[in-house]
Amino acid sequence: LNKGRINLSLEEGFIIKNKALRKVLTNPDEHILGCNFSIEKVLLEKINGFDENYEGPGIGEDSDLEFRLRLTGAKFKSVRYLAVQYHLYHVETIEDPGNLEYFNKMKENREYFCKNGLLK
């Protein structure tokens, strides 16, 4: 729950060693979030990294990266309840509506290699 001022996601601070309980509590359809994911360099190079056509935070930069990785067959694994996540307070970000429009066009194209990434 994020009210713009206080983040009450207390579950991000728990470590659960019981594998069965973790499996029940963790979403099987994991998504990436730019502030806390890792990736093998070879996979990032395969999709040409982040698409630099996105302007500012919000929809697009993380969603686009995840979408293109999934097109290559990449699998995602969560470390939720295995690692404590700290999130520093910041004012709520304002998303650029152009990012959503661009992201929807990219999804229609279904190309995993972006043209404006690591290589230009």
Descriptive account of the structure:
The protein is mostly helical and 120 residues long. The chain is 31% helix and 0% strand. The protein contains 4 helices and no strands. Helix 3 runs parallel beside helix 4. The relative contact order is 0.24. Residues 1-5 have low confidence and may be disordered.
Overview in brief:
This protein is 31% helix and 0% strand. It has 4 helices and no strands. The model is unreliable at 1-5 (pLDDT under 50).
Write the layout of secondary structure elements.
Blueprint: H1 19-25, H2 41-46, H3 61-71, H4 97-109
Helix pairs in contact: 3-4
Count of separate DSSP helical elements = 4
Low-confidence stretches: 1-5
**Amino-to-carboxy terminus distance:** 39 Å
Strand content: under 5%
Fraction of residues in helices? 25-40%
Q: Which features characterize this protein?
A:
120 residues, mainly alpha, 4 helices
